[in-house]
């Protein structure tokens, strides 16, 4: 199997085990296939959270 690591390939927009596209095209590693499948949603949520945090720090 994948040794517990999964990746989301940005080039092919799919989940991959350790053996897959070069890392420059991937997000991860993730512990589960499901976490890798949600990589784009997770990144979007984190970005939104960071933007809000930045607003608080800058007094906006």
TrEMBL record:
Residues 41-60 are annotated as: Disordered. Residues 49-60 have a biased composition (Basic and acidic residues). This is SPOR domain-containing protein. It comes from Sphaerisporangium krabiense.
